[in-house]
Amino acid sequence: MNRKQRRSSKKPLGNSVQLGHILGSGSNKIKKKIRDIERLLQKKKDVLPDTVLIEKERSLEALRFELKNAELRVKVQQNAKKYHMVRFFERKKALRRYKQAVKNNDQNEIQEKAAELCYVVNFPKTEKYIALYPTNENGQDDEEDVDTSDKSHEKTQAGRKAFLELVKASMDSGELPVSLDEILKGGKLGRDDNGLQLHKSDRSGPEDGGKSEVGSGKQDIEEDEDDFFEN
């Protein structure tokens, strides 16, 4: 009897350790584990003990949450590689324009340029970066994917305007991930902060303020991005 109890007590521990090897790994490995558990539940749901069913369902929930984080990590890494240069130069340009506005002592211009600077720094890491300062002849952003259709251009402009308005509102309410004062002191988004989120569905939770586990990705990418953001 005692032996049976000891064996049964070891099973959850073993499953927890096994799950621990999966959590924090790549999305393919997590997807495979999810499929394995789903197949097990589909085939043996009627014969498995309730305790095992509950355990497997909890494991599925944890794995699905981790899969979402793994996919976010990949997206953050891809965006860091693709957009860190343009964001670096836009930050320098926005900072220069803000300082010029302060020098001109024009309050309206100061507010506008402050919002632009906060836009660049607080733009979400999980999103395709929409440049504030289009430079080519068509008015398209340099870093945009090659798509010169009017519909795509309108969508880009709408996205830029919507995020800039969100930045202004967040400045007024004091809810920016990185405030203007922090930016002027060299501040930037932390490794675990995704930035200001335009869509609630982009957040890892309803009350997480745009933060998730994405910071556990490759640190060299984050450090490379940080180097470009130095003044």
Notes on the structure:
This protein is mainly α. The protein folds into 2 domains: 2-65; 84-229, no CATH class. The protein is 65% helix and 0% strand. The chain is built from 7 helices and no strands. The chain has helices at 2-22, 27-44, 50-104, 107-122, 150-173, 180-184, 219-229. Helix 2 (27-44) packs antiparallel against helix 3 (50-104). The longest helix has 55 residues, at 50-104. It is elongated, with a radius of gyration of 23 Å. The termini are far apart.
The tally of domains stands at 2
Integer-rounded radius of gyration: 23 Å
Number of helices: 7
Structural class assignment: mainly alpha
Compressed to H and E, one letter per element, the order equals HHHHHHH
Overall morphology: elongated
Regarding quaternary structure, what we see is single chain
Mean pLDDT metric: 76
Percentage of residues in strands: under 5%
Low-confidence region ranges: 1-14, 137-147, 201-231
How would a textbook summarize the main sheet?
A: none
- Terminal Cα span: 69 Å
